[in-house]
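Standup notes
- DV: blocked on the single-chain target, sequence here:
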Amino acid sequence: MPMADPGERFYKWLTSANFRYPKHRWEWNEAASLLREMAQDGPISVLDAGCGEGRFLEQIAEIPGVAAQGFDQNFDVVEAARARGLDVYHGDLSTVGLHDLCIDVITLFHVVEHVSDPIDVLERARDCLNQRGIIMFSVPLSPMSYEHAWPDPFNMPPHHLTRWSLRSLTVLGDRLGMGLRLSVPQAAPLPARVLRSLVLQAGESAKRASALSKAMNVLRFVATKPTRLVAEVSQQLRRERYAGCALPDVVLVRLEKY
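- DV (later): unblocked, structure below
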C-alpha cells in the first residue's frame, strides 16, 4: 500500500506539540557557498521548497545577486516567515503555479523523506528549472548511526515516509535523468557516536534532560549490561564508509540537468 502524506494538519499539530526542527543545518552552509559562487557569474533565482520559518532564506538574503523566495504547506510557519519580511508563500509544488517560472536553483532541505511520492516532487522541481538549473536537497542517510540500537520514531511514518541510502540516491539520479553529486559532512568521532547510541539505549533520550542525568543513566546501563559497550564500539567500527570515512547521518544531494 502506498504511503499516505499526513498533510498540513499533521505538521501544524507537530509545531503546536512543541517539536522543534534545528535552527541551523550543516547543509545550509554548503548550499550557501555554492550559491555565492554561482552568483559571481550573474543573478540567480532560488526557490526554497518546504522553507519552514525561512532560516535558510535569511542566511542567503545578503548574498549579492541572489533573489530567493520559498513556500511551505504549514500556514503557521509561513506567517512567521512573512513576519520577518521574507518572500514566502503557502502551498507546495503543485499549488503555487511554478510551471510558468524558470528557476536557477530549487532547494528542498529535509523535505523529500516527508512526501509520499518523492519522484513526483523532484520531477516537478526539475520541470521548474531552466536549462542549466540545479536541485539541492538533503535527507537523513539510512541507517543512521544509532538506529541499530534505537528505532527513532521521527524517522518513521507518518513523519518520514521514505529512507535514503547512497545506493538509492544513485538510482534516483538515473531515474530523473540528472547528474548527481553527493556532499557529506565529517561523521561524529567514534566516541561521540558510541555515547549517543548508549544514551538512547539507556532510555534517556529527552533533549531537555541534563548532561548529568544522561551520564548517570549511561553509567548504570553499562554497569548492568557491560557487553553493550563492547558491542556498540564494534558496531560503530563496522559502519559503512564513504570516501574512506564513516558515513555521517545526513547527505546533501546536488542534481544537475545534463
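- Follow-up: DSSP finds nine helices and nine strands in the chain.
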